[in-house]
């Protein structure tokens, strides 16, 4: 790792016309004076969005030959390389994806070991259009995925709909992505502080009930929570989840949760980004409680029984007597 500071990355996604460029322009204006770089991804060679972005950036890179989530990762990689080796690194990098991008696949790039040394993915932001998002949710798989992988979901164009409908939309967003912060805005205006909220600040699985969102095609997007007082074998867990993500990518949209690994008191945050799984340390488990590992799966037609089957080989069963004595010793203090 070199001694230069990491570059903060903000990935802006959201369906066509939702207000991504409008939000980006507001952020650039608020951050005027910082070194901000923008990567704009757009279909087709002619740059339209590039000209719509206000000039409050230090550098603009336009990737216009396809969608970065499927065909442009090498081109994106080249730009990242350039930024990493520039004399004066930017402070912030904003990436605006095409309206149909799979943001999870783009976010995945920022989990690569070499990329992580220089770039810190601070937030995946999904901009939605209050007036049309419900229809898009029913019609397009992309919109669901964009919401599910985001840390911050902005319901934009709130001036087009009633207050009652906004409450319904907020609930809908929560049911699709229980991890995201939901923010209402118009004209893509958000306070800068939101960008600083830690990615997992409001992440408390136990308060999120399992939810079902029925897609118009009849498919059910479900949130299924698996809980256990047992521990996980690290290697088996990584293997079984990676295999499941590969085989069932079209079905499993997201995995997120805290777990306890065999022989360690570290609290581990597990999450999937695209097809990639990451495990990060998140402090330690509270000594006065029996650790309960919880993994939330969000996806199409998921069933708890199938999740149990996937996880079974990775679980190290703690004998009932041992668990009982651990509980007793905690009670006695
Ligand atoms: N009335 C209204 N219009 C808005 C609002 N936010 C954005 N717009 C307008 O909506 C249109 C689309 O906004 P953009 O920011 O270009 O949307 P985008 O998501 O970048 O669009 P694509 O790049 O095509 O996917 C523009 O004409 C904006 O001025 C809002 O809150 N209210």
Question: Tally the helices: what do you get?
Answer: 12
CATH class of the largest domain: Alpha Beta
Compute the number of strand runs.
15
Task: Look up the CATH topology of the largest domain.
Answer: Rossmann fold
Strand composition percent = 25-35%
> In the CATH hierarchy, what is the superfamily of the largest domain?
P-loop containing nucleotide triphosphate hydrolases
Radius of gyration, Cα only, in angstroms? 21 Å
CATH architecture level-2 label of the largest domain: 3-Layer(aba) Sandwich
Through-space gap between termini: 44 Å
Strand order of the largest sheet: 3-2-4-1-5-6-7
Query: How many domain regions?
Result: 2
Outline? globular
What is the structural class? Answer: alpha/beta
Mean of residue pLDDT values: 85
What string gives the helices and strands in order?
EHEHEHEHHEHHEHEHEEEHEEEEHEH
Give the names of the bound compounds.
Answer: guanosine-5'-triphosphate
Give the low-pLDDT segments: none
Helix content: 25-40%
Give the biggest sheet: 7 strands, parallel
Function: Zinc chaperone that directly transfers zinc cofactor to target proteins, thereby activating them. Zinc is transferred from the CXCC motif in the GTPase domain to the zinc binding site in target proteins in a process requiring GTP hydrolysis.
Pfam families: cobW (PF02492), CobW_C (PF07683)
Keywords: Chaperone, Hydrolase, Nucleotide-binding
GO molecular function: hydrolase activity; nucleotide binding
């Amino acid at each position: 790792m070199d001694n230069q500071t990491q570059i903060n990355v903000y990935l802006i996604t959201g369906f066509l016309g939702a207000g991504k460029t409008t939000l980006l322009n507001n952020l650039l204006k608020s951050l005027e004076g910082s070194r901000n770089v923008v990567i704009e991804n757009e279909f087709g060679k002619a740059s339209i969005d590039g000209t719509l972005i206000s000039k409050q950036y230090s550098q603009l890179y336009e990737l216009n030959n396809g969608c970065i989530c499927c065909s442009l990762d090498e081109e994106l990689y080249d730009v990242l390389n350039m930024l990493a080796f520039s004399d004066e690194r930017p402070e912030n990098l904003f990436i605006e994806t095409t309206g149909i991008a799979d943001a999870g696949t783009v976010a995945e790039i920022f989990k690569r070991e070499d990329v992580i040394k220089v770039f810190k993915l601070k937030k995946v932001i999904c901009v939605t259009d209050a007036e049309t998002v419900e229809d898009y949710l029913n019609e397009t798989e992309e919109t669901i995925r964009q919401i599910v992988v985001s840390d911050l979901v902005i319901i934009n164009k709130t001036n087009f709909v009633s207050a009652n409908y906004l409450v319904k939309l907020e609930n809908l967003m929560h049911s699709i992505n229980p991890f995201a912060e939901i923010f209402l805005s118009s004209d893509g205006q958000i306070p800068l502080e939101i960008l600083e909220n830690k990615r997992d600040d409001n992440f408390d699985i136990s308060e999120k009930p399992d939810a079902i969102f029925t897609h118009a095609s009849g498919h059910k997007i479900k949130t299924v929570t698996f809980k256990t007082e047992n521990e996980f074998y690290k290697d088996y867990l990584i293997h079984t989840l990676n295999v499941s993500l590969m085989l069932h990518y079209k079905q499993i949209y997201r995995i997120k949760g805290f777990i306890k690994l065999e022989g360690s008191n570290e609290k581990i945050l597990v999450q999937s980004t695209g097809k990639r799984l990451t495990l990060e340390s998140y402090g330690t488990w509270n000594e006065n409680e029996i650790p309960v590992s919880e993994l939330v799966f969000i996806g199409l037609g998921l069933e708890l029984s199938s999740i149990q089957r996937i996880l079974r080989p990775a679980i190290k069963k703690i004998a009932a007597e041992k668990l009982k004595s651990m509980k007793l010793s905690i009670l006695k203090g």
